[in-house]
Amino acid sequence: MRILVVEDEAPIVRMLERGLAAHGYQVLSADNGRDGAALAADEAVEFVLLDISLPEMDGHEVLRRIRQTRPELPVLMLTARDDLQNKVSALNSGADDYLTKPFAFEELLARIHALTRRADQPRSSRLELGDLRIDLLSRRVWRGEKRVELSSREFALLEYFARHPRQVLSRQQLLSAIWDYSFDPGSNIVDVYVRYLRRKIDRPGEPSLITTIRGAGYRFDPAASPGSE
């Protein structure tokens, strides 16, 4: 797998290049945001490690450009500040995960494995529920004739919902299945991404495909009734 590292701190880049190469990964690197965005668009990379604070173009803008052309590409953002606002900002920008510097290399590997593990699992090539079509090979989604652009994490969440239609799924289940995290009662990351999905797959004036079950979690219902939330 080819990993793009966009990071301007040379010692971190050298550590990542050595460590990732030792585990069989091919590494491309850029020390500024503009070059990083160009490499993500032009090279056949399969994963991106992206620093937030970069010269020439910050990580948020790099990520915005990546999502325009390759919405399915997994992106793990690196942040120097371990505060809630910084983490929320990274996720709201479309990152699939984040890691605070300094970090243990073993944790980085675990995050990379978690984000790529689902792509290696055998699965049928297409899911169709009502007028929602999900192509699992190309990782594309349509609602009727309209193409829906999703980030890698949004796609994983939608796929999980689609594989468990009309089942009530708790936040703990979703957090474990999609983020590979233990349940954190203080985290609202599931709610944030459900909101992202609703904005993209729901139609104005029609019931949401994802119903909130108060006190229990969420239910994905492609035949949602007018009374759904």
UniProtKB/TrEMBL annotation:
The keyword Oxidoreductase does not apply. Residues 2-116 form the Response regulatory domain. Residues 124-222 form the OmpR/PhoB-type domain. GO terms for cellular component: cytosol; protein-DNA complex. It holds the Pfam family Trans_reg_C. The keyword ATP-binding does not apply. One of its GO terms (biological process) is regulation of DNA-templated transcription. Coiled coil: none annotated. Residues 124-222 bind DNA. One of its GO terms (molecular function) is transcription cis-regulatory region binding. Keywords: DNA-binding, Phosphoprotein, Transcription, Transcription regulation, Two-component regulatory system. It comes from the Bacteria. InterPro entries: CheY-like_superfamily, OmpR/PhoB-type_DNA-bd, Sig_transdc_resp-reg_receiver, WalR-like, WH-like_DNA-bd_sf. The modification 4-aspartylphosphate is found at D51. This is Response regulator transcription factor. It comes from Rubrobacter taiwanensis.
